[in-house]
Amino acid sequence: MTTDALEILRTTFGYPAFRGLQAEIIDTLAAGGDALVLMPTGGGKSLCYQVPALLRPGTAIVVSPLIALMQDQVAALVQNGVNAAALNSSLPAAAARALEERFLAGELDLLYVAPERLMTPRFQELLGRVEIALFAIDEAHCVSQWGHDFRPEYLQLSVLHERFPAVPRIALTATADEPTRRDIIERLGLAEARLFISGFDRPNIRYRIVQKRNARDQLLRFLEAEHRGDAGIVYCLSRKRVEETAAWLREQGRDALPYHAGLPAETRAAHQARFINEEGVVMVATIAFGMGIDKPNVRFVAHLDLPRSVEAYYQETGRAGRDGLPADAWMAYGLQDVITLRQILASSEADDFHKRIERQRLEAMLGLCELTTCRRQALLRYFGETLAEPCGNCDTCLEPVATWDATEAARMALSCVYRSGQRFGVSHLVDILTGKDNERVREFGHQRLSTFGIGRALSATQWRSVFRQLVARGLLAVDPEGYGGLRLTEACRPLLRGDENLELRRDPERQSRKSAARRG
Ligand code: ADP
Ligand code: ZN
């Protein structure tokens, strides 16, 4: 079987060999089996159904929600001499009828159809009269409400299998988190399908997540030390921060440009063009920047703010090092990130279901930040792929993280939150613990609390690290009103009762001393 597939790959598509799991997937389909394929964008999903479409008798039906992509693919196939066509709403009635005729005559190898078109009675009737090679369901995550691309029409696609149980199906997506995967399997009836996950690892990207102190300075030091004259992207959460950071980097002599949705279209286009065509431009951007940007020699992607999900982090960092040469994914992350994102979430208009989803996504992202083991292993695990050994090319591999028994410290912190009434923010709580006798402490009479000054053994920085990790682990919750007040959660009970111990990351002190020396 594979020799035929290889023959098609070479003669029709002009490639010498299959990549990754392509050959196995193609064999599965050619033999009549179902497949669920999870591969990142650019991983080579299309060939997984295009080759079997040519191997099997009949016409392959490809369901795709994106008309523009459909047209690109069809054009490329036709250029390679494949009989492919697309049926969608952009086609005039007469042309659609002519296409139906070709389909009925069995002249097509592949027919791309928009999901809403596929489910019309007219098209369903046509399907019954033609030999079908396979059904390919592209962008399969559209069936899941977990995704941001939910399409109700996709829910009806399970009908295909009920009507044509003998026709093999392949569902494909780049969105591979566990809940989405479960939805796809359940809603498309793919429990029997073979699961193929591959290609998510980007071994040339070095992942690093550092503790945020003075993010700008840290960024500049990172750029000076490792990326003088390199092109890269710096992601920030807000437009304001994009503007400020870009202006500041320019003052420091870097060729930095801002990019966000609030800039005039001409400015955005001009900045994007400079980034792509010139060397050494640093694009400071919101997430509005990046879709469809294919610059191979982006040497670094830096995050000054925490992305909302592991998926977003993976996608954004994935813009680095497309040329396969060493590249950096660098992020500064701190307590305020956790607080801000928790607040944005709590105050969002979304319904409870979507809030819960967003919260779980954020938890996973925080988990990645606070990790003490290999980041790449965790990242790939999130996508369902396994990496047997620690990667050796992430910060936790290169500099193993020390942990410490923070049980006592955590109890002090939690007790301080409780005794001060569960409404104060971190700075004030740290002042109480370290025994700062300042105006605000006096105003609330907190110098009389039993927790006043009990934490003098740790520095303010260390206490902030403790609070950050307690919030990140969900032992403390942030009040949604905007002042960053902290309160206890159910999850901290075992610790307070003494049933549980807590190991925390020991954040490196080194950098802070260095920057302190610089300031002094
Ligand atoms: P996806 O749909 O997963 O985003 P594509 O199917 O568009 O990815 O493939 C991405 C690119 O990789 C395309 O340019 C494609 O031609 C190329 N490609 C895919 N498989 C192979 C292969 N076996 N050998 C060489 N190039 C390949
Ligand atoms: Zn690693």
Automatic annotation (TrEMBL):
Q: Which cofactor does it need?
A: Mg(2+); Zn(2+)
**DNA-binding as a keyword?**
yes
The entry's family comment says: Belongs to the helicase family. RecQ subfamily.
Q: Which residues form the Helicase C-terminal domain?
A: 215-365
Q: Which residues cross the membrane?
A: none
One GO molecular-function annotation for this sequence? four-way junction helicase activity
Q: Which organism is it from?
A: Thioalbus denitrificans
Protein name per the record:
DNA helicase RecQ
Task: Report keywords, A-Z.
Answer: ATP-binding, DNA damage, DNA recombination, DNA repair, DNA-binding, Helicase, Hydrolase, Isomerase, Metal-binding, Nucleotide-binding, Zinc
* UniProt EC number: 5.6.2.4
Q: Which GO terms describe its cellular component?
A: bacterial nucleoid; cytoplasm; replisome
Where in the numbering of this chain does the Helicase ATP-binding domain appear?
A: 26-194
Q: Which reaction does it catalyse?
A: Couples ATP hydrolysis with the unwinding of duplex DNA by translocating in the 3'-5' direction
What are the recorded Gene Ontology BP terms? DNA recombination; DNA repair; DNA replication; SOS response
